[in-house]
Structure formats: structure tokens, C-alpha cells
Amino acid sequence: MQRSAAGRAGPGPGRRSAAAAPDPHGRGPRLLRRLRALGGILPPATELFRDPAALAALHAWAAVAEPALCMTTVNHYLLCLGSIVQLAPDHGPLGAELAALESGRARAPI
User: Fold this and answer.
1) Which residues on neighbouring strands pair with residue 10, listed in sequence order?
2) Residues 6+ apart with CB under 8 A from 76
3) C-alpha angle 84/31/46, rounded to 5°?
4) Which residues of 36-57 are buried (b: 16+ CB within 10 A; e: fewer)?
5) Which of 23, 62, 87, 105 has the largest count of CB atoms under 10 Å?
6) Integer Cα distance of 9 and 100 in angstroms
7) Residue 39 to residue 41: CA distance in whole angstroms
8) End-to-end Cα separation, the chain, in angstroms
9) What pLDDT score does 17 carry?
10) Which residue has the higher pLDDT, 17 or 87?
11) Is-contact 101 81, C-beta < 8 A?
12) CA–CA gap between residue 77 and residue 57 (Å, rounded)
């Protein structure tokens, strides 16, 4: 890695960072469809987090099905929904947003 004039590390001249790399296999849309399908069959996040075995099984089977889906579920369920459930116990003001995230209609920003 080379350093920019501001001193930040970067990929170097003529190279792209991994975050900016195109998705040649079209995984993004497929993962979002699968996340939406999971949202349609899983219980609400508050129930899911009360059952650690079910949450662990979700991630284990997602890893078997597709490793990228496992990481997507970790980001979406643990980091995004888990944070909302733990840090905002009164979900009233976030009701619509939480419902959209739980159903898979919205996704956690990555």
C-alpha cells in the first residue's frame, strides 16, 4: 500500500480498493433476494435474539449455503438489528424502520 499526500494508506496508483471492485458474479442482488426470503420466514428480531440456538443455526446454515450469505446475515442480524434491539428497547419510534429491516425490505448499510 502506498500513502496518499494526506498520509492515508491506499491501494496505490492504478489499483482499486476491494470496496470499489465490481461484482462480476452478481452476488449483491442475489444476496439481497436471499436476505429478503429469510426475512419472510424468520421470527421478528426480538424473538430471534431470545433464542441463541436458532440464531446460531441461521448463521451456520447460511455459511453452508453460501459463505457470503453468512457474512450478510451477520451484518444484518447481529450488527444492525442486534444493535437496534439492544440499544433502543422502546422500538415505537423505529417501528416502520425495524419492520422493514426484519422483513428484508431494507438492509443494513454495509
Assistant:
1) 2
2) 35, 101, 107, 108
3) 25
4) eebbeebeebeebbeeeeebee
5) 62
6) 37
7) 6
8) 23
9) 52
10) 87
11) yes
12) 13
Q: What is the DSSP letter of 2?
A: E
The closest of 104, 26, 106 to 58, measured between CA atoms, is: 104
pLDDT tens, position by position, 35-92: 999 999 999 988 999 999 999 999 999 999 999 999 999 999 999 999 888 888 787 8
Asked whether the beta carbons of 84 and 91 are under 8 A apart, the reply is yes
Number of H helices, E strands in the chain: 6, 2
Read off the C-alpha cell for 8: 492515508
Phi and psi angles of residue 32, each rounded to the nearest 5 degrees, phi first: -65, -40
* DSSP 8-state class, residue 44: P
Residue indicated by cell numbers 437496534: 84
What grid cell was written down for 52?
A: 441463541
pTM: 0.69
Find where cell 424502520 sits: 97
Query: E strands, 1-110, where?
Result: 2-3, 9-10
Better pLDDT: 12 or 88: 88
